[in-house]
């Protein structure tokens, strides 16, 4: 073989060409890594495809996700919905990590703002639904959250029957309606009713069950919309319209929001609220309804020992709001009767079966069963 002796000049010229070639090759490998077999070349625009999911499986997984590596509520609801879509749809959901939603725990790293379970579920909705759909379903989810007794009856039942993956706590827990989507109000309301600490194992379990409940209801809403049977049931408390009539865009235009205002700001007009007693005498009770069962109208009777702001609503056996009967209205001391005609918030007649009405007056909350035949 012929051997060639390179001059110093030739050597430098050849070396320079080789260096350029290597640099180009390395750059190409860096900018354009080899694509995995079957992987998309680009991430598709939102929304990504949605497939109908199992509501009760979402409830169980949401509870489990809350405890997964101690990642809590925001991760729990988001991880549940996304991983179920990974199984049902595949790509592009299989390309998405879920741990990044952990930041929403405790209302944003413990700051007590928007409930983390809502943060996770709303984020998942925004990925798999068009903007207009995500907005209407998200509005309903947040409204439902403010008026639902958590943990729901279903979650309590699952815990008692040992149907959750984590069976450490199998007691049925106290249920409370917080009237707000804020984590700290939701937690504070519950720990006061349960008489436990905010950092207790009982409170953690409560939020685990709540995470499952929120994931399940988010899935239900998306399923209903996919089936074209979704209809909003949430109705804002009367106090919201009352406050925003002054502070909204047609008035002072100095406030935004949909939350019940007087929880944080009080009622400077004195027309919506009154001083609440620290405790209620035994005479403060719902006295049932008549006729039992009823069709199609019933009267719910209750007595309060002191003037109070009253909230009264009807739920189905799944904990879904059916009808707002009294929206945070001021009631005087004494007995009261409120009628329900068997319709929901859209004024559609509900099906026969078992329902529950929940009375809240001041700090007192009580639930009673009623039956439509």
What summary fits the major beta sheet? 4 strands, antiparallel
The parts where pLDDT drops under 50 for at least 5 residues are 1-6, 14-35, 273-286
Q: Structural class per helix/strand content?
A: alpha+beta
Shape descriptor reads: globular
Strand order of the largest sheet: 4-3-6-7
| Fraction of residues in helix | 25-40%
| Overall number of structural domains | 3
Q: C-alpha Rg, in Å? A: 28 Å
Number of helices: 10
Structure in words:
The structure is a single chain. With 373 residues, the chain is α+β, with helices and mostly antiparallel strands. It folds into three domains: 172 residues, no CATH class; 30 residues, no CATH class; 88 residues, Immunoglobulin-like, CATH 2.60.40.4070. The protein is 38% helix and 16% strand. The protein is built from ten helices and seven strands. The N terminus is likely disordered.
């Amino acid at each position: 073989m012929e051997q060639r002796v390179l001059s110093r000049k030739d050597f430098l010229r050849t070396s320079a060409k080789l260096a350029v070639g290597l640099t180009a090759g390395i750059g190409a490998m860096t900018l354009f890594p080899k694509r995995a077999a079957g992987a998309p070349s680009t991430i598709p625009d939102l929304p990504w495809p949605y497939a109908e999911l199992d509501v009760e499986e979402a409830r169980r997984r949401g509870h489990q996700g809350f405890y997964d590596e101690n990642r809590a509520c925001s991760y729990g609801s988001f991880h549940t919905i996304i991983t179920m879509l990974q199984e049902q749809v595949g790509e592009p959901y299989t390309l998405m990590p879920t741990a990044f939603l952990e930041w929403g725990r405790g209302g944003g790293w413990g700051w007590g703002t928007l409930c983390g379970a809502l943060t996770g579920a709303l984020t998942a909705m925004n990925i798999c639904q068009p903007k207009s759909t995500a907005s209407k379903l998200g509005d309903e989810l947040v409204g439902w959250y403010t008026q639902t007794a958590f943990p729901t009856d279903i979650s309590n039942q699952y815990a008692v029957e040992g149907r959750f993956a984590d069976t450490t706590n199998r007691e049925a827990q106290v249920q409370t309606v917080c009237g707000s989507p804020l984590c700290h109000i939701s937690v504070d309301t519950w720990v006061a009713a349960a008489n436990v600490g905010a950092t207790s194992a009982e409170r953690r379990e409560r939020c685990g069950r709540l995470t499952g409940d929120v994931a399940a209801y988010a899935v239900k809403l998306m399923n209903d919309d996919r089936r074209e049977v979704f209809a909003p049931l949430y109705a804002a408390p009367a106090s919201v319209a009352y406050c925003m009539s002054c502070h909204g865009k047609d008035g002072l235009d100095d406030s935004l929001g949909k939350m019940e205002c007087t929880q944080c700001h009080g009622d400077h007009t004195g027309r919506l609220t009154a001083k609440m007693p620290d405790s209620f005498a035994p005479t403060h009770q719902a006295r049932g309804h008549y006729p039992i069962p009823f069709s199609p109208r019933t009267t719910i009777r209750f007595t309060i020992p002191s003037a109070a702001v009253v909230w009264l609503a009807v739920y189905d056996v799944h904990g879904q709001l059916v009808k707002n009967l009294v929206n945070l209205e001021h009631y005087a001391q004494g007995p009261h009767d409120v009628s329900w005609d068997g319709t929901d918030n859209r004024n559609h007649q509900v099906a026969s079966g078992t329902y529950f009405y929940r009375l809240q007056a001041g700090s007192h909350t009580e639930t009673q069963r009623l039956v439509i035949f």
